[in-house]
Design brief:
This protein has three domains: 193 residues, Up-down Bundle (Growth Hormone, Chain: A), CATH 1.20.1250.20; 50 residues; 187 residues, Up-down Bundle (Growth Hormone, Chain: A). The protein has 18 helices and two strands. The protein has a two-stranded antiparallel ribbon with strand order 1-2. The relative contact order is 0.13.
Length: 457
């Protein structure tokens, strides 16, 4: 939604306390919710080993523990933004908090793997409603571009802070209170965020939009079936892959008939610049999420580090990302987004390639070198990817392009965990399997670098 649309909201109610002097409290509320979601994302990877031991689950279940969240988040992200515009950003924000908190409670009390995966899916649904609503609210509450840029900078910094806080916090909680504590921690945070949300102004801008239910259903079945085919084996994988192909073909047919009201207007598929950026975004998270899933698991399975040590060992990558990501705006303005994306993806690929030469994460100095390069590459790439997605389309489509880029990121994350986890498990969860998985992750990152470097007419 552009600035002119923001000024012409169809309904807007200003609650008590939401004047200029209350904008700090509003931003605190939005950032607290985002912090809750992002910390959860980063700590769960440290818990999968403890979950596997406690619930006696195979690798595929551990993958679903992570991907149950990633998949629902990826599938529903675009619809979450649409629902916020139609029914009200504050309303959908609060629904998102409620679902995320409920999912965390189910996970924390889960008697078995099935309930745990269900809870993760509910949490992912909540995140898909919550995160787009926060950005939409920022755009409405801060209409002046400079103030809005400042608010978005703080919002983005919260994401980075969560990336740094999550691993050591998760390692500490798991070692002291067990794996369930990382999910139960979200409950008081969710209740606090829901209580604070009463100060948010309500706004909506339906603009004749509607929820694309057929497109959403077919896209979800297609992505879910493909993920199932990668993680599982045997006849189930074959049938899942076939179902996925049919659903994705049906999705394209439904979206073509829907025209400009589609969840993903197919006219955007002809935008080679946007498609290239989405490919880069997916390649970036494919390798990175594969690392943060497999490396702590390998360390813990091989008794290289304790869970607290694994959380601390991941910290340098997080700190490099947080420390440099705020500089990429100026660097992108000076050098251009494409060189930063190309260099960032090349660094990610190099870092993962270095990890492939370790013995399931040993020696630690070599693994840390790979992590530092990966964090540096993520810092260079993340901001320019989103900026390039928005720049690739007319202003009227900026929101859709941003949502597509973020969806591509989560799809890449989902398949990174699915594919690299399946390779690691299939090769025996040892040094060979770890090295093979990392080489595949590095290869995908280098393909992303080629996509970023390729000039688009």
């Amino acid at each position: 939604m552009d600035d002119s649309q923001s000024a012409g909201l169809t309904r807007s109610v200003e609650p008590r306390g939401a004047q200029f002097t209350g904008q700090g409290r509003i931003l605190l509320t939005l950032c607290l919710a985002v912090l809750m979601v992002q910390v959860d994302t980063s700590v769960v990877n440290l818990a999968v080993h403890a979950i596997g031991v406690a619930l006696r689950t195979p690798m595929s279940t551990l993958q679903w523990t992570v991907d149950g969240y990633n998949l629902t988040y990826a599938m529903l992200l675009m619809s979450g933004g649409t629902l916020a515009d139609i029914f009200g950003r504050r309303r959908i924000f609060r629904w998102g908090i409620g679902l995320f908190t409920l999912g965390s409670l189910v996970c924390g009390l889960a008697p078995g793997a099935g309930a745990l995966i269900l809870g993760r899916a509910v949490s992912g649904t909540g995140a898909a409603l919550l995160v787009p609503s926060t950005l939409a609210l920022i755009r409405v509450i801060w209409p002046e571009p400079r103030q809005r840029a400042h608010a978005i900078g703080i919002w983005a910094g919260t994401n980075g802070a969560a990336f740094a806080i999550g691993p050591p916090l998760g390692g500490f909680l798991i070692s002291v209170a067990g794996w369930r504590s990382i999910f139960l921690l979200a409950i008081p945070l969710g209740l606090l965020a829901a209580w604070l949300a009463r100060i948010l102004p309500e706004s909506a801008d339906p603009g004749g939009r509607r929820l694309d239910l057929p497109g959403q259903l077919l896209a979800g079945l297609g992505l879910g079936g493909l993920t199932l085919a990668v993680i599982e084996r045997g006849d189930l994988a074959v049938w899942s892959a076939a179902l996925s192909g049919l659903c994705l073909a049906g999705f394209l047919w439904v979206e073509r008939r829907a025209g400009e009201t589609a969840m993903m207007p197919l006219t955007l598929l002809g935008n080679r610049a946007l498609i290239g950026v989405m490919g880069v975004a997916a390649a970036m998270t494919f390798g990175m999420y594969g690392i943060v899933f497999l490396l702590p698991l390998a360390w813990l399975q091989s008794n290289v580090l304790s869970v607290t040590g694994a959380g601390i060992a991941l910290l340098p990558m997080s700190l490099v990302f947080v420390g440099l990501s705020h500089k990429t705006g100026a660097w992108s303005h000076r050098f251009g987004a494409r060189p930063l994306m190309t260099g960032g993806m090349a660094l990610i690929g190099t870092g993962i390639a270095i990890l492939s030469y370790t013995q399931t994460g040993r020696p630690l100095w070599l693994a840390e070198t790979g992590l530092l390069l990966t964090g540096f590459g993520m810092a260079l790439n993340t901001g320019p990817v989103l900026a390039a997605a928005v720049a690739a389309v007319p202003t009227s489509r900026a929101g859709t392009a941003s949502a597509l880029a973020n969806t591509a990121r989560m799809v890449g994350a989902t398949f990174g965990v699915a594919v690299l986890g399946a390779v690691y498990d299939g090769a025996g969860t040892g040094t060979f399997g770890f090295s093979l998985a990392m080489r595949i992750g590095a290869g995908v990152a280098f393909v992303g670098a080629l996509l970023a470097a390729r000039p688009i007419p």
